[in-house]
UniProtKB/TrEMBL annotation:
<keyword id="KW-0732">Signal</keyword>
<keyword id="KW-0813">Transport</keyword>
<dbReference type="InterPro" id="IPR024370">
    <property type="entry name" value="PBP_domain"/>
</dbReference>
<dbReference type="Pfam" id="PF12849">
    <property type="entry name" value="PBP_like_2"/>
</dbReference>
<protein>
    <submittedName>
        <fullName>Phosphate binding protein</fullName>
    </submittedName>
</protein>
<keyword id="KW-1133">Transmembrane helix</keyword>
<dbReference type="InterPro" id="IPR011862">
    <property type="entry name" value="Phos-bd"/>
</dbReference>
<keyword id="KW-0472">Membrane</keyword>
<feature type="transmembrane region" description="Helical">
    <location>
        <begin position="7"/>
        <end position="24"/>
    </location>
</feature>
<dbReference type="InterPro" id="IPR050811">
    <property type="entry name" value="Phosphate_ABC_transporter"/>
</dbReference>
<dbReference type="GO" id="GO:0042301">
    <property type="term" value="F:phosphate ion binding"/>
</dbReference>
<keyword id="KW-0812">Transmembrane</keyword>
<feature type="domain" description="PBP">
    <location>
        <begin position="33"/>
        <end position="269"/>
    </location>
</feature>
C-alpha cells in the first residue's frame, strides 16, 4: 500500500508539472516580445525616447535600439539580424534588390519629419550662406571663410560617413551629386560633428534639427528665395529647403511586437514624443 501511494504521489507531481508546462506554452515566449531597432543616427534619439515610453507602458516587452547609420540598419534588416531599420533616406534600388533576393520585401513607414541644420562655431561671424556657397565649401572650390564674408581662416568641412542617410541626402540636395572635398573630415556619428564644430572656429558641419544646442550656431540658408533659418515653423511650412522624412523599414507587413511598437510610434502618444524630442510629426 505504501509503495502504491508513493507511485501515485510521483505520478500526481508529474501530471501537475505537465499541466503547468502546458499553461506556459499558451503564453507568448519572451523572444516574441523582444525586437531590435537599428540604423540612422538622426532617428536614434527619437527611437530611444519612443522605446523607453513604450516599455514604461508595457514593461514585459523589450525593444533594443542602436545607431550606426541608415545603411548599417538596412543591411542588418536584409540579413535578418533586426526587426526594424531606421533610415533618414529612402532605400536604394540595389538594397531593395538585395532584400528581394533574400525573400524580404521591405515596407516603408514615414514616422516623422526632420530638418538638416548647417552649423558653425558660435564665434564664427558668418551667419548665413547661399546654396551655391555651401556647395562650394563642400566640393572644395571654396576653402577660406574670407571667400564667403568671414574672417581669413581655413574652412574645415565636417561630414557624416558614407553609410549615413544624412550624408547621401546632403550630397544629393546641396552638392548636386558632386563629390565631397577630399579633405572633408567624416564622422561616424552626428554627436561627433557637434563636438568637432563646437571646438573648431573654422569648422562647418550638418546635423539633424534635434541635435541643435548652444554649442553650435545654425546658419540661415538661401536657395534662391531669401535667407531662411532652420526653425520649427520654417521646416514644417516647407520654407526651409533641407527638410526630409524619416523612416522605419520593416521586413514586409509588421507583426507582433514590431506592429505594436510601430502603431505606438505613429499614434497620438508616439507623435507627441516626436515633437518633444525635436522632430516634426509625420504628415
Amino acid at each position: 500500500m505504501t509503495k502504491n501511494f508513493k507511485i501515485y504521489a510521483i505520478l500526481s507531481i508529474m501530471l501537475i508539472g505537465i499541466a503547468f508546462a502546458g499553461i506556459g506554452c499558451l503564453e507568448r515566449p519572451d523572444d516574441d516580445r523582444s525586437i531590435t531597432v537599428r540604423g540612422s543616427d538622426t532617428v536614434l534619439p527619437l527611437s530611444q525616447a519612443e522605446a523607453e515610453a513604450y516599455m514604461d507602458k508595457y514593461p514585459d516587452d523589450r525593444i533594443s535600439v542602436g545607431g550606426g547609420g541608415s545603411g548599417v540598419g538596412i543591411a542588418a534588416m536584409i540579413d535578418g539580424e533586426i526587426n526594424i531599420a531606421m533610415a533618414s533616406r529612402e532605400m536604394r534600388q540595389s538594397e531593395i534588390d538585395s532584400a528581394n533576393r533574400n525573400n524580404i520585401y521591405p515596407i516603408e513607414h514615414t514616422i516623422a519629419w526632420d530638418g538638416i541644420a548647417v552649423v558653425v562655431h558660435p564665434e564664427n561671424p558668418v551667419k548665413e550662406l547661399t546654396f551655391d556657397q555651401l556647395r562650394g565649401i563642400y566640393n572644395g572650390s571654396i576653402s577660406n571663410w574670407e571667400e564667403v564674408g568671414g574672417e581669413d581662416r581655413r574652412i574645415s568641412a565636417i561630414t557624416r560617413d558614407s553609410s549615413s542617410g544624412t550624408y547621401a541626402f546632403f550630397r544629393e540636395v546641396v552638392l548636386k551629386n558632386d563629390e565631397y572635398r577630399p579633405d572633408a573630415l567624416a564622422m561616424s556619428a552626428t554627436g561627433g560633428i557637434v563636438q568637432e564644430v563646437s571646438q573648431n572656429r573654422g569648422a562647418i558641419g550638418y546635423v539633424g534639427y534635434a541635435y541643435l544646442d548652444q554649442r553650435t550656431h545654425a546658419l540661415s540658408l538661401d536657395e534662391g528665395n531669401g535667407y531662411v533659418p532652420p526653425t520649427a515653423e520654417s521646416i514644417q511650412s516647407g520654407d526651409y529647403s533641407l527638410a526630409r522624412p524619416l523612416y522605419y523599414y520593416t521586413k514586409g507587413e509588421p507583426e507582433g511586437l514590431t506592429k505594436d511598437f510601430l502603431d505606438f510610434v505613429l499614434g497620438p502618444e508616439g507623435q507627441d514624443i516626436v515633437t518633444e524630442v525635436g522632430y516634426f510629426p509625420a504628415r
